[in-house]
């Protein structure tokens, strides 16, 4: 397939695909999905070999969020029967993190529900980072605390945080349909604050919320413009009690095409399969390792994930290996960029472009935009059929987390 050969060549050169090429990946048929995986797999192996980075989530504060994000079980007005608790103490969080590190995780992601941290919250998280690093000097710590105010990213960096996560989630054009209590621009601002403070930026998306192919391409191109080091790809977990509980729009093949598109657009970035892989990829999870080089180990924030031991067996059986604590995740040109991890210095990094830059909306277009074409029409058709072809709702696979952080039970690490 000429399209795939072109995309592989571009991926090996870190060249941005055209918008029509990205849409065409999403429009490929289920009959061609293995070809798509094989092509994107060449790009993944070129930059990351067969290594899989393991990450572990610790939910520092669960539920009771004042924001109205439609996809979230912790949102304002959520009727989902999730665990609800206030801030874990630093020693409790460190103990929770230790379980994931024992399972092979090299990064701990500290997450707290809410619009954004107060200065006192930043102090709490800073104490938690110190407690974790006192016990595990080489561990990477990523904070995910919501929208940041001026100076907070710098304080987290000084406390020892290595990265900050704040996802764009969906396209700018549809963001207001998903959340009304903050804006897309607020999210972009927080990612930029993390970058400016010298933190490794982590920002991704959620697929399966009823978005179009164009929306998916928009958000991935916007992510490339922001140039994060890590791009988590979440697949919506339709929790009962949330507005999107009936959105079952994904098939395993659709998920693989989305991951492949992300890999082609962001070839040298850590692409992480995040929440929902067990629900939507199901038995196709091992194939997805040919596209993504990073996963979460065990459970998620409020939902139960695949057992940590099963994750490790899956990685080994698929012919991959767990990335060691001493190994550098990113390719050398990104890891050693002047100015720190994820630096924008120079013109060679993923997402760097001359002129207005990828994602510029001057003149009404975005980087890679092109007139409507056969590929765009095919993409729209594929998007429309994706919902029709999606497998029946598998509510049996959506299980609320009842162990680990915030409980007295051992975690699923």
Helix-strand topology string: HHHEHEHEHEHHEEHEHEHHEHEHH
Share of β-strand residues: 5-15%
The count of β-strands is 10
Unreliable stretches covering 5 or more consecutive residues = 338-388
Q: What is the percent of helical residues? A: 25-40%
Question: What does this entry look like structurally?
Answer:
The chain starts with a helix and ends in a 24-residue tail after the last helix. The radius of gyration is 20 Å and the shape is globular. With 413 residues, the chain is α/β, with parallel strands linked by helices. The chain has helices at residues 2-13, 19-27, 33-48, 90-102, 119-135, 152-159, 175-178, 184-196, 213-226, 252-265, 277-280, 285-288, 308-317, 332-335, 374-389; strands at 51-61, 107-112, 140-144, 163-165, 200-202, 205-207, 230-235, 270-273, 294-296, 321-322. Strands 1, 2, 3, 4, 5, 6, 7, 8, 9 and 10 form a 10-stranded parallel sheet that branches. InterPro entries: Aldolase_TIM, BATS_dom, Biotin_synth/BioAB, Elp3/MiaA/NifB-like_rSAM, rSAM, rSAM_sf. Catalyzes the conversion of dethiobiotin (DTB) to biotin by the insertion of a sulfur atom into dethiobiotin via a radical-based mechanism. One of its GO terms (molecular function) is biotin synthase activity.
């Amino acid at each position: 397939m000429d399209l795939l050969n072109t995309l592989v060549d571009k991926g090996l050169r870190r060249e941005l695909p055209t918008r029509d090429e990205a849409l065409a990946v999403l429009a490929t048929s289920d009959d061609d999905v293995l070809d798509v995986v094989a092509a994107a797999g060449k790009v993944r192996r070129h930059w990351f070999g067969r290594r899989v980075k393991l990450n572990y989530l610790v939910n520092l504060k669960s539920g009771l969020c004042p924001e109205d994000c439609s996809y979230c079980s912790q949102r304002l007005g959520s009727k989902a029967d999730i665990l609800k608790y206030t801030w874990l103490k630093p020693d409790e969080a460190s103990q929770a993190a230790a379980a994931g590190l024992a399972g092979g995780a090299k990064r701990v992601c500290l997450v707290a529900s809410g619009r954004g941290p107060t200065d006192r919250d930043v102090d709490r998280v800073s104490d938690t980072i110190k407690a974790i690093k006192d016990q595990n000097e080489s561990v990477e710590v990523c904070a995910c605390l919501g929208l940041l105010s001026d100076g907070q990213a710098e304080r987290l960096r000084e406390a020892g945080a290595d990265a900050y996560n704040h996802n764009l989630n969906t396209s700018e054009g549809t963001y207001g349909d998903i959340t009304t209590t903050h804006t897309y621009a607020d999210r972009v601002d927080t990612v930029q604050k993390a970058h400016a403070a010298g933190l490794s930026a982590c920002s991704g998306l959620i697929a399966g919320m009823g978005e179009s192919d164009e929306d998916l391409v928009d958000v991935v191109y916007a992510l490339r413009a922001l140039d994060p080091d890590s791009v988590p790809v979440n697949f919506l977990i339709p929790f009962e009690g949330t507005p999107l509980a009936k959105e079952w729009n994904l098939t395993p093949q659709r998920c693989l095409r989305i991951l492949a598109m992300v890999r082609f657009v962001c070839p040298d970035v850590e692409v992480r399969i995040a929440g929902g892989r067990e629900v939507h990829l199901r038995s196709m999870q091992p194939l997805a390792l040919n596209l993504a080089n990073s996963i979460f180990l065990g459970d998620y924030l409020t939902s139960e994930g695949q057992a940590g031991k099963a994750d490790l067996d899956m990685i080994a059986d698929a012919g991959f290996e767990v990335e060691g604590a001493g190994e550098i995740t990113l390719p050398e040109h990104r890891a050693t960029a002047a100015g720190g991890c994820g630096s924008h210095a120079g013109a060679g990094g993923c997402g760097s472009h001359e002129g207005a830059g990828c994602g510029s909306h001057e003149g009404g277009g975005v980087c890679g935009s092109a007139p409507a074409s056969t590929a765009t029409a095919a993409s729209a058709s594929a998007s429309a059929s994706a919902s029709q072809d999606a497998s029946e709702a598998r509510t049996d696979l959506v299980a609320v987390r009842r162990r680990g952080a915030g409980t007295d039970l051992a975690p699923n690490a």
